[in-house]
Write a structure and sequence with these properties.
Blueprint lengths: L1 H59 L4 H16 L3 H22 L3 H5 L1 H36 L3 H7 L12 H8 L7
Amino acid sequence: MTVLLIILGIIVLLVLWGAGIYNNLVRLRNNRENAFANIDVQLKQRHDLVAQLVATVKGYAQHEKEVLERVTNARAAAMNATSINDKIQAENNLSSALAGLKVSVEAYPDLKANQNFLQLQNEIADIENKLAAVRRFFNSATRELNNAVQTFPSNILAGMFGFTKQPMFEVSTEERTQLDKAPEINF
């Protein structure tokens, strides 16, 4: 009888311990999803500003059609992405397209002095800074989830309940190439 109670006690403790691990994994997954919801808010503002920026630049840069189309297509893809992983990829593509637009704008001194353009450029810079902050929070939440999914003993329950390692919101390969270059300074 005593042995049966001890075994029953051990089983109850194991169940409670497993429930605790499972609940922690759910909490971490929800935290990651909440962090991405914060990114979504900033991305919505970014998408709206990009449309305005493209319209402003269009008036000056008629022959830069390819660059503007790339930005417009990347924005549309980013707005239509549904899963977190698809959104990460689409936003990296949009960032890359915006970098190409910045290079093209350098050829238009009148545009660079236009008040509407300057205001949009400042607003986009502000949004990019906010995006960087919420991306860091998202990556921190993702790291916590990934640590729980990959470390013992929670990795046992994570595998049983379908929790998997999730991707970070990282700089795209094209952006990484640009970041690795030394900046040009022109006077």
